[in-house]
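Researcher: Can you fold this with 2,5-dideoxy-2,5-imino-D-mannitol in place?
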Amino acid sequence: SIVSKGYRTGYHFQPPKNWINDPNGPMYYNGIYHEFYQYNPNGSVWGNIVWGHSVSTDLINWIRLEPAIEGNTPSDINGCWTGSATILTGDQPVIIYTGADTEKRQVQNIVLPKNRSDPYLREWTKPKNNPLIEPVGPGLNSNQFRDPTTGWIGPDGIWRIAVGAELNGYSAALLYKSKDFMQWTRVDHPLYSSNASNMWECPDFFAVLPGKNNGLDLSAAIPNGAKHVLKMSLDSCDKYMIGVYDLKHDMFVPDTVLDDRRLWLRIDYGNYYASKSFFDSKKGRRIIWGWTNETDSTSDDVAKGWAGIHAIPRTIWLDGDGKRLLQWPIEEVESLRRNEVSHQGLELKKGDLFEIKGTDTLQADVEIDFELTSIDAADPFDPSWLLDTEKHCREADASVHGGLGPFGLVVLASDNMDEHTTVHFRVYKSEQKYMVLLCSDLRRSSLRPGLYTPAYGGFFEYDLEKEKKISLRTLIDRSAVESFGGGGRACIMARVYPAAVVDGATHMYAFNNGSSTVKVSQLKAWSMTRAQVNVRKG
Ligand code: DQQ
């Protein structure tokens, strides 16, 4: 139908049809990037899950292969769920994933490539010793025990993985050890656990260097000054903690422990879940992939024949102050840019709306630097907003004048603005520092009924005395609006379904609705050409 064609993304990862969810086992091996994903080969709702498999040389254009793992043994007959890839010493790739067994218990299984000299690693075999790990031991809930991480080797030469679990009613990343990646024993304490929640899905554990965007391989020597990150998926979002990995006790120790999980940092403040990162040895960076589901109705998904996309892979690193992760779309996405439009020295006064013309507004990449003329105009910050940023974004929406902001972008807007999505900043003053809010407001995004249209928001601290510019980058892809605020300090992935997208005519604007003027020192926009995403079979 026309509807499904209009909303189908042009350069985000998705299979030709059907349902996808979590990214699984991303890796770079022998010159090829692999992306596996939770996939329903029979329809556009969750179910019958197998591991879809695609390969790429640039993480943007993908070749589709046959599913890599299907549930056909006693240890995965009721489910082939999320897992991770590890490249073992001697260049041996392996995948550990969660199976639901004959009794619907969650167990961890392994698969190995049948033929390592096949450049695409098309076929994966299950050794006889599955399951490798069963849900046994004190405090474990056998229905909440899944999503093993990539393995890492300690200085003692022993492998470790973490598994998301409910332990004694609380959330945990359980730690397992092995000499050979086949025989695993549970360590008597978790890598980390918290009684602020009761289950963590898709844990991810990795190392980062403050202020450096080169990535680290957790199995290589970790340099001094590095920090560790534990990411967990809960409450429909991906949260993380920064800390250190205490090797002596084999434990993750967060720098700050926040009892209220609403305050935990988030990889993304929008629609982004079950992310998984990997070390890209080709370019020496860490890349994170996440799943973004549809926010139309299930019947819309059935009509479209597809549901779920993956966000653009992002380089991920640690801010210089060690307090927050930064993310930026991988540079390869820039190969899709066409027809650059550029403006300098624009002034946006209160109420100004500047139309950005000359690009394909349905598939675009926009970068704007906003320069603040007077930071004294910032309104005071109220820390209670941090507990519910969506509520704050609803109350202080794009039409509510502030001292500094709102200013930002209006995207996918219909001719008469009946439909529009805003991505904007507000700047607040909090004691010695400034707090910036990035908001992506979907409430007016579409006139169609039955959509989930929240106003997403995330705050970040910003040194405005030093840095007078706040940058916004937004990738627009028909039903996807993916934004990076303050150089990747806050990210918001969103899905929208404007009727105007189906008609193929939308507009894009820069705007300011704050009392003080902001300058746009630089604005660049590009049309994004269609990528070859899974259109070819390999
Ligand atoms: N999705 C998988 C699970 C995981 C969940 C099942 C997270 O392994 O916990 O499709 O979205």
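Model: Folded with 2,5-dideoxy-2,5-imino-D-mannitol in place. Helices lie at 2-7, 298-304, 389-395, 499-503.
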